Amino acid sequence: MHIRGDHAELVVGGRLDVRSAADARTVLHTAIDDGVGDLVLDLSELDSWDATGLGVIMGAHRRAGRYGRRLVLRGVPPQMQRLLVATRLHRILAIEGGIGVESLPRV
């Protein structure tokens, strides 16, 4: 997993899973704590995530809210969009451009 960017926009690539969760959490918390306004999390380079990775995203979402910020997901890959819809988290998280639920294949 790699994360690059600053306190306004981060690009996440590779796998966000149990092995990378602690590092990702640290980077996200620092970006949230040090910035103002929306924090855009670009997931277009993300290969996969597991439940732990999704938990990191949700934790960052909650932390951003406590700091008066908003976590905005950008470039969410289709397989991850399906997971967000299945868990109904697409209704909670800010997703740039939204998710076209109708266009996602059924699982």
UniProtKB/TrEMBL annotation:
PROSITE patterns hit by this protein: STAS
Coiled-coil positions: none
Pfam families: STAS_2 (PF13466)
InterPro entries linked to this entry: Anti-sigma_ant, MlaB-like_STAS, STAS_dom, STAS_dom_sf
STAS domain span: 1-107
Family indicated by similarity: Belongs to the anti-sigma-factor antagonist family.
Protein name: Anti-sigma factor antagonist
Record lineage: Bacteria, Bacillati, Actinomycetota, Actinomycetes, Kitasatosporales
